Amino acid sequence: MKVDIHSHLATPEYVEELKKLQSPQPRVVTLRDGSMHLDCGEGLAYPLTNRMLLLEPRVKEMEESGIDHQVLSLPLPGTDFYERDFATKLAQVANNELAEVSRKSQGRFSAAANVPLRFPDIAIKELQRCVNELDMAMVEIFSNVAGEPLDSERFLSFYKEIAHLNIPILVHPGRPVMMGHLREYGLAGAVGYLFDTTLAILRMVYSGLFDKLPDLKVIVPHTGSTIPYLVGRIDHQYQLLDANQRKLQHLPSEYLKKVYVDTAQSFYKPATECAFDFTSHDRILFGSDYPFVDLKQSVAIVKSLGLQREEEEKVFCENARSLAII
Description:
Elements: E1 3-8, H1 12-19, E2 27-30, E3 36-41, E4 44-47, H2 50-53, H3 56-65, E5 69-73, H4 84-104, E6 109-111, E7 113-114, H5 120-132, E8 139-142, H6 156-165, E9 169-172, H7 188-206, H8 209-212, E10 218-220, H9 221-224, H10 227-239, H11 252-256, E11 260-262, H12 269-278, E12 284-285, H13 295-303, H14 309-322
Parallel strand pairs: 1-5, 5-6, 7-8, 8-9, 9-10, 10-11, 11-12
Antiparallel strand pairs: 2-3, 3-4
Helix pairs in contact: 1-4, 4-5, 5-6
């Protein structure tokens, strides 16, 4: 069995709500030819293709690539950029739609909750609803909350509730905080997303969050972003800090090796191998980042590693099962 824990669906009502908005808010824009793109602000946008909007192309490609199950989550911009009432409505609309797709799919799909973390009290209530009423087994947050870092003290109550509910967090790239330096050459997709996720996870670690909540289950997509390649430098630089800046009980790498990573959008075998060398096979999950990739290619990069059968089964299915994602 192959389980893809990282894929995106822009649901119909979510899209319709974003069509109502005006710039500079992230919004859906309909072009003259009738096609749509999602304008995430600050020059970041992408087309809303049928692969993002409809289930039929997705199901066909899953069957052709041998993927049995996908976990669906919202794409950027999520719900963090909006004011309280609209963000609440948007999250509820999208989560209801994702849960309904999951319910009707006869086991082909499940869904990750999206919450407006900009408002932690609402985020906690919506998370509880998604887990207890909509049967969602994972939550997606973005690598910054409309520019605010994930280690903000405001979010600690939210993390405590996640730990209490014992569900994993997918920390998905958000609109990069350094977007002004990425826009000119279209570098957000190439490097910006990965830098932003790396920064987010490091701030979470350095803040002592994982000492406070050692059982928090965090998934870092895109083969751990840049962490597997930088972990030696991270430890080295941490040890150079003044004593009053070193808050952790262990070196950063000890915490980083306990996070989970997925295999999404790793198109270079040595980079994928680096991620597999960095962490245990028990902490690697198959993910594609569909619809931004070809599913066959996503499967092929894992197959190319020549893993033992037991290791491959862990990556494709058993690790997701152990996290109760499926």
